Amino acid sequence: MPWSLLNKPWLRSVVQLVQLFLAPNRDDVYEQCVWAALDEPPRARKLGKRPGTSRRDVFDEMHRSMYRNAAYTQADGPERAAYDKAVVDLERARAKQQAAADEPEWNWKVVCVLLSAAGLAVLITGGLMALLVALFSTALLIFVLFWGGTAVWFNLRYCLLAAVLSISCAAARVERSYRAVVWGMVLFDKGIVPVMDGMIRHLMGEDPDSLFVPQGTSKGLRAPRAPGFVVQTEAMEQLHRKLNHLDEGTIAVCGPRGVGKSTLLENATEQAAFGVLIQAPATYAPHDFLMSLSVRLCQDYMQHEGYPAPEFARLSPFHRVLRGTRRRMRALGRWSLFALPATALLVLGVSSAARSLYTRYKASASDYAHTWAAAVQNWIHEVWSGHAVVTSVTISILGIAWWRSRHDPWLPQALGRLWTRFGANVGILIAISSLASAFFDPQLRQLAHDVHFGTIFAAALLAAGWFYAFTASLSERVQKARLDLGRWTLYAGDVCKLLATFLGAYLLYFLIRTPSTYALLADEQNPLRLAGLVTGTLLARAAGWRPTPAEPHLVTRCRNHLYRLQTVQTTTNTLSNSSAQVMTLGGSHATSISTMPPNFPALVEEFRGLLTSIADTLAARRQRVLIAIDEVDRLSSDAQALAFLAEIKAILGVRHVYYLISVAEDVGAAFVRRGLPHRDVTDSSLDDMIHVEACTLKEANAILEKRSEHHTPHTALLTHSLSGGLLRDMLRYGLQIEEIQAKTETHELAHLARQLILEELSETLAGFRTLLSKQQWTQDASGILGDLRTLCRHLKSSQCACSDGTLIHALEHFAHHPVGSQPTHGDITETARQLIDEAAAYSYFSLTLLEIFTAPGLDRRSEHARAQSAYGAHERLAEARLELVISPYSARTLITHIRKAWALNDSPSIDVLSPILRRMSCPLHRSRPDPFGLRNRY
Fold this sequence. Notes:
By secondary structure, the chain is mainly alpha-helical. The strands form 3 sheets. The chain has a 5-stranded parallel sheet, sandwiched between helices. Strands 3-4 form a two-stranded antiparallel ribbon. Strands 5-6 form a two-stranded antiparallel sheet. β7, α24 (638-648) and β8 form a beta-alpha-beta unit. α12 (286-304) runs antiparallel to α22 and α12 runs parallel beside α23.
C-alpha cells in the first residue's frame, strides 16, 4: 500500500519503516521504496506534466531490470550484505525447523498447544507451586520414556525440538525485518531517489529544467527582506575580510541601485555584536540626521545592556500612573492566584508536623535562646561600663572600617559569594537528608517488606510512563508536531502533557488505593520530610538569586541624553512670604528655567563622546561596534551626497567603531580616483571602499534556491538575464514567474518566458512613450512614434503565442533599425533621438531573450553557443542588460555578438512556419488538431 494516503510528512517516514518491517522481501522492499519516492511532493508535482512521465510510466520504468540493477548497485554496501545474511540465516532456520517437524508422526503444533494449555490450567487452578510440581513430574516422565526408548519419546522429542526451532525462526524473521528496514532506508536514499530522478529527466526529453512546477508562492520571494534567506556572496566575503583587517574605519559600499547594498549592510549589522542601522534622509539635514542617529544609538545600547529605553508618552501623569497601577495589579492578581492557594495547601499539609516539632524542641530552644541573650546582655554591659577596654577599642576600629568600606562593600560581597558557593549545597543537603531519613526509618523498612513485587512493578511502570511523557512534552520536535483532523488541530505536545497528567494522577491514586503503599504514605513523619524537601529546594534556588545591580553609568548617560534630545524640560521656582493674619502683607517671586536643544557643534561633541565611551566599554569585552548608514545614494545628486559626507565627517573616525555607508557609484568612483584630477571629501572621509557587483549566475542560482524550492536553473537563468544580476529585480522577476504560472496554468519555460519578457517590454516602452511625449515633434519626424505606438498596441493585445506573427514582425522592425536612422529628416532634439535609440536597444535585447528562451532545445543550443565564441556564455546576457544602462550603442554591439553566437538573425525576417508552430504549442489551444505532430515537442 503506498502511503500517499497520509498527507503528514512527519508520518510518512514512520509508515515507511512499518511497511518495510511487515514486508521484508526483496521485491517488496524495492516496491515500497519506489512508491515512497513517487509520493515525495517535489517529485510528484513534476509527474504527468509531459507525455510519458505519468506516475504509472515512472513506476513501470523503475521495474525494468536496467533501473532495478542500477539502484541495487548504488545501494550495495554493508547494509545490503547484512540483509542478505539475514535472509540466508532465515532460510537455514526454516530448513532446520521443517526437518525437525517432518520427523515425528504427531503434529508438533497440536502437541505444543496441548502442553501449553495444560500448564496454564495447572497454574490457574493450583498456583505457581502446583505448576512447578507438574513440570518436575513431566520431566521425570520424559526421562522414563527416554530410558525405555519408546515411540512416545521419539515423537515428543521432535515436537519439542520443532517448537524450539520455531522460536529461532521467529527471531530470524525479526532480524530479517530489521535488516530490511535498514537496507530499505539506504536503498531509498542512495539508490531509488537518484536513479528515479535521472530516469524522470530522461523521460522528459529536452530541457528537463525548463519545467516549472511550483506549489504556491515562495515566502522568500514574497518577503525580500525577510530574515533567514541571506546567501554568502563575494561582496559579503570581501566586507568580512576588510572588517577583520581593520580596527576601526569608514568603509563605503557602492554599486547600482537594487544590487543588494541594503542587504549587505543589514547582514553586517546583524553579525556585529552591537550594530546600528539608520536610513539617510532623502532631503538631508545634518542636524536632524545626527539627532536621529544619537537617539537610535542610546536606545539600542540600553536594549543591548538589558535596560528598557524611556517612553515619552503623550498621556497625562494621572493616566500613566493609573495605567501602571492597573498593570501591576493585574500581575499581582495573577501571581496571587497561584501563590496563595499553593502556600495555603502547603501550610495546611505540614502544620501538624511543624506543631509536633515545635512542641518537642520548644523547651530546649527557649533555654538556649535565653542563655545566649543573657551572655550578649552581659557583654554589652561590660563594654558600656568600661570594663572591657580592648573590646571597646576593637569595636571602634570596626565601626570606622565599616564606614570607610561604603565605597568598597567587600564584606557584603564576601558574604554574598559565600552564600552563592555554599547555599545551594546546604539546600541540596537538606533535601537529600529529608528523603534519606525515610530509608533509615525502621517502621518504614518493615512496611516496605510487605509490598508485593507486582505492586512495585506496576508503580515503576506508571512512573516510567509519566517520566517519558513529561520529558517528551518538553522536546521541541514533539511540540512542533501536529495532526489536522478537519477543523481541529491536535498538537503532540499537548497530548504528551495530558498523558503525563493522567499517568501522574493515576500513579498517586494507585499508591493511595493499594493498602501496602498506603501504609508507607501514611507515616506521620512524611509531612516533615516533605517540608524539608521543599525547604531545601527553595534554599538551593535562592542561592542563585542576585540583587538587581545598579544601573551602569553609561546607561544612565544614554538615558539622560535621550531626555535632553527628545524632551523640553522646564523648571519653575516660586518664593512667597505672607502673614497669617486677616490683613496680609507679602510678596511672590517666580523663576522659570527651560533647557535649550543642543546645536550642531554641541550635538557632534556629545555624540562623539558618548560613542567613544560605548566603543571603549564594548571593546574591553571584545565586541565590535558598527554603524551602518544606508540610502545615501537616494540623494538627488552626487553633489548632495558629497555635501552630506562633508557634514557628517565630524562624527567619523571614532576609535573602535566601524562605519558602513552606502553611496552611489559616482561617489565610489571619486574615491577610487584618489584625488585625480583634484581631491574631494571622499579622500578624507572614507578609509576603504567595496564595490558591490551584480550577482553572478552561480550566485543567482544559490539565491533562488535559498528563497524558493520551485525554481530551476533555467528560471534562474531567465531572471538573471532579464535583471542583469541586480538582486532586487531578480527577486521581483522570480515572483512574477510564479504569478504568471498561477495565471496561465502552464509549466513550460517557453510560455512563461514569453509572457514575462513581453510584459516587461510593454511596461518599458510605455515609459519611453511618456518621456517622448515631453519632446517637441514635427509631422515629418513623427514616423518613429507611429512604429512605437504600433508595437505597444501589439504588446497589449497579445494574449497567447498564436497571435505573435504581427507582434514579432513589429518588434523586429523597431529593434533592428540602424542607430540614428529614424527619423531621416526634420528637426528632432538630441534628447529625443537618445530616447529612441535607448528604446530600440532595449527592444533589441528583449527580442534576443525572446528568441533564446522560447525556442526548443535550450540546453542543446546553449552548448552550441558556448562552442561558437565567448559571447555564447550565459553570463553575457546579464552583461548586455547592464550595458544598456551605460550606452545603447555599446549594448547593441554586444547584443549583436551574442546573437551571432546563438545563430540568430541580424535583420528583420518573415517566418511563415513560426505562427503555425506557436499555435501548435500554445497552452490555450492544446485541444486543436496537431497534424504535424509538433505539440509538446519541448
